[in-house]
Amino acid sequence: MLTPEERALVFNTDWLRMKHGIMDKVMHLLGQVQDAITILPAWQQWPEAAPVRSLGAKISKGERYKDLPYVILDYPRLFSREDIFALRTMFWWGHDFTATLHLAGHSLARYRARLESARPALEAAGAQLYILEEDPWHHEIGAGIYQPLSAVAQTGWEQALDKDFVKLARSFDLGEWEQVVTGAAGFYGEVLAVLKGA
To answer: Which among 38, 43, 83, 119 has the fewest CB atoms less than 10 Å away?
Structure first.
């Protein structure tokens, strides 16, 4: 049986139309993030031969990440069994936007030393370190999942870089909607400059 609250919603189409409108705006916003990445100096100077340059952007959306709607932009993106290199921007309904660098396999091996030596720049960019040991597919920023890099001991940072994958992220409050594009692009610009060795 429907609860009184559910029964009221069944007859109300306005909230659903508004939700669809919001999701369309999120898709547009993530398209702007992609455009902003393409003009970052570090990305424009990225080697043309790098495998990650040949794959276009991918936007996916769904209704049930922990029971709430989401939209994800992966750009640039490379996902294979042996290699992950992705900048993942995610909108999660009711929570936040996140900008994430995800490296594993060949890409992590290639950039591990640069990440290790660039810790101060990553801290200054507001990076948080993913601290779960096994599963790299949690996306929310929160206690027990991410920790500000500035609060991670040096031994913890070194151990994190010795794992099979590393994720660094920065979150943006939903109230900062107008700053998401510049904020995410700024974070990605810092991250890409570190990886490129600029």
So the answer is: 38
